[in-house]
Amino acid sequence: MDFIEKKAIRNFKKGEFLCMENDKGNSMFIIQSGEVEVSTQIRNQKTVLAKLGSGAIIGEMALIDRQPRSATVRALTNVICLEINENIFQKLLGDVPPWMRSFYLILVERLRKADKRQRNMEISDIARQVFYFLDILLNGTKEDQFGNKSLNWNKIVEQITFIMNIDTEIVRKLLGILINSKLAKSELNYEKGRQFITDKFDTISILAEYSRAKYMEARGFNNEIKFKPWSKQELAVLSLISIIMGEQGKMNEIPIEYFEDKCRETLERPLNEYKKAIRVIKLKSIIKEKNTSEGVFFKVDNEKLKETLENIKQQNIFTEIEKNINRIFPD
To answer: What's the CA gap between 68 and 49, in Å, rounded?
Structure first.
């Protein structure tokens, strides 16, 4: 350690960088005194990961797996540290059993994967917050005579950028995703400038609540998310019920035999293969089995069926929005 202290001591003044993200990592640092800030760029936005002081070790992952630096480290005060370069590090590893070296590599690989997952989650969290804040802005806006709500595009971007401290380009792209999903549109008003216009503000409110619930659920809070995924079989049966009800007009009872015939005709499968799906739909009280002297029927609650189909339609929109977010903001 005497050799290291004499040869590896480094001094950094306040504001200087110990290392930069994506640079090649040739050394690690052990802070002796002072404080540093560890940060990374996520979608062109600086994100502070930690502030570290005496005893902290920095840059060890790049030294172990020889991958580029995963973060930038800047001195917040004057800093004294030991810089352990690759040659010294390899000498220190000389007494370490081979299995322990492999363990270090596995550990670093897992840490990098966890870091990547965190970055991927970041844009989802940002999107959820933006949609929630947008709903607050819309709730404070009155409908016009055509049933629309309008907000100044640049003002939305400015407000969200300021409140959430995120890059303006991210906000613009997320608003663009809502426009592409047909939940809103953008028009140029020569008096007011570019406008964000929607007549689907009720759906945006549901999206905002869905986003809030998903955000809180990811953080361990027990939230009741309104939309639960339906299986392919459940969706197929619901669709079939909707088709039959459309054919029958005001009637809300479907003979089981007729339903089975339509199942074979439309879904090309016997009704017996959809037992589990039908049981789920029964539990949702969308249909009830009714036995009469004339036979067995499915009695359909038209209001619940209509509400369920509308929820599925909205959920499909939200799923498409999430896909577009992943497409526009790739890894």
So the answer is: 17
